[in-house]
Structures are given as structure tokens and as C-alpha cells.
Design a protein that fits this description.
Layout (H helix, E strand, L loop, with lengths): L17 H4 L6 H8 L5 H11 L10 H11 L16 H18 L4 H7 L4 H18 L1
Helix pairs in contact: 3-4, 5-7
This protein binds iron/sulfur cluster.
The site of iron/sulfur cluster (SF4) has 14 residues, from α3.
Length: 140
């Protein structure tokens, strides 16, 4: 599915308060209201369905996008993984947390909100990120 990242020179509501777009348990009505009036609403919804696991995109919640993917027979692209990733379950989870937290932090979501969004305590996320970074450094 070809769904490019939605760009515009006009202001987008999510740029003002990115954390709200990644809060857990956003309702369908709330998601619609948050994105209403955005100049790239439709394109953003398509992009979000094709690419995004977390947050509100194009007025659609995570669950709404999962349903849309299921209806269209789509799956999300796999996260890029380091070569030779070990099968150890905790390390795999640490690497996933590092990847996902980097993605959300890069979008301007605060660390506390990222930890909450990924189902970790602040300390738990910090530890997981440290273990994952150590592994990556040793593997390189
Ligand atoms: S439609 Fe997309 S770009 Fe616009 S406010 Fe919503 S999430 Fe942001």
C-alpha cells in the first residue's frame, strides 16, 4: 500500500501537543475531534493505517487502524531489527522497547508519557533501553 507521510506547509493540530496524540485509550470520538480541521486528514489516515502502530493518525485510534488493516488484509511492516538478533525473549523485548521509545521520543512525546504508552515504569523503560544499547554496542 503506497501511503506517503502526509506533509503540508499549513499548521497541523498534533504539532502543538504531540503527547495527547499518543495518550493511551483515546476514544474514537476524541480522536476525530483532535484531528478535525487538519489539512491532511485523509492522507494521514491512509498513512497511519499503512504504517503506524501507536497514536492517533488521521482521526483514527490505534484500534480503528487495526480494524482497517484487518479489513484490507494489511499488516504493519516489521521493525527494523539488528542482524543476528538473539532469540532471548527479554532481549528481544528490550530491543523492541528501545526501537518504539526512540520513535515516540523523536516525535516529541515526553519520556514519562512514552513509558506509560509502552506499558513500563520510567525505571523499567530506562533499564530496558540500557540493556538494549549495551547489547547493540557489544554486537557491533
Ligand atoms: S490528521 Fe494527522 S497530521 Fe493532522 S492532526 Fe491528525 S495526526 Fe496530526
Amino acid at each position: 500500500m503506497n501511503a506517503p507521510y502526509p506533509t503540508t506547509t499549513l499548521p497541523k493540530p498534533c504539532e502543538q501537543d504531540p503527547e495527547s496524540w499518543y495518550a493511551p485509550n483515546v476514544t474514537r470520538e476524541r480522536a476525530r475531534a483532535m484531528c478535525s480541521g487538519c489539512p491532511v486528514l485523509g492522507a494521514c489516515a491512509e498513512y497511519g493505517i499503512a504504517r503506524e502502530r501507536y497514536g492517533v493518525w488521521g482521526g483514527l485510534t490505534e484500534r480503528a487502524r487495526e480494524r482497517a488493516r484487518a479489513n484490507k488484509g494489511l499488516t504493519l511492516p516489521l521493525h527494523p531489527r539488528p542482524q543476528n538478533q538473539p532469540k532471548d525473549a527479554r532481549l528481544a523485548r528490550d530491543l523492541e522497547l528501545l526501537h518504539d521509545s526512540e520513535e515516540l521520543l523523536g516525535r516529541g512525546v515526553g519520556f514519562e508519557a512514552v513509558a506509560q504508552r509502552l506499558g513500563c515504569s520510567r525505571h523499567g523503560l530506562t533499564s530496558a533501553r540500557t540493556r538494549a544499547r549495551k547489547h547493540l554496542a557489544e554486537a557491533s
